[in-house]
């Protein structure tokens, strides 16, 4: 199911959401725009940032040079299988 988070503000006035590890996630904590290796945690952080309002979907797609299909696949995998669904080595198992 689609999980929406509310954006919160920390003591420095930075907007944050709770990331996949349970820790606060600010825009500065997101993977760098030139990320080449998409591990589970990084994918989940981008999904959490979009769901929480740190980035719009369009901003995320542009920043990380993703297709909407790719991002939506990440989101569906998390919703259906949790973080394990983002493993590329297990992709056939979760389809």
From TrEMBL:
It comes from the Bacteria. Pfam families: DUF1153. Transmembrane segments: none annotated. This is DUF1153 domain-containing protein.
């Amino acid at each position: 199911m689609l999980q929406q988070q509310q954006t919160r503000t920390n003591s420095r006035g930075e907007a944050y959401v709770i990331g996949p590890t349970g820790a606060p996630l600010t825009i500065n904590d997101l993977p760098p725009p030139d990320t080449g290796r998409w591990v589970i945690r990084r994918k989940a952080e981008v999904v959490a940032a979009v769901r929480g309002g740190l980035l719009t979907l369009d901003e995320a797609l542009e920043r990380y040079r993703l297709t909407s299909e790719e991002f939506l696949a990440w989101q569906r995998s998390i919703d259906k299988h949790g973080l394990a669904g983002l493993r590329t080595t297990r992709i056939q198992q979760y389809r």
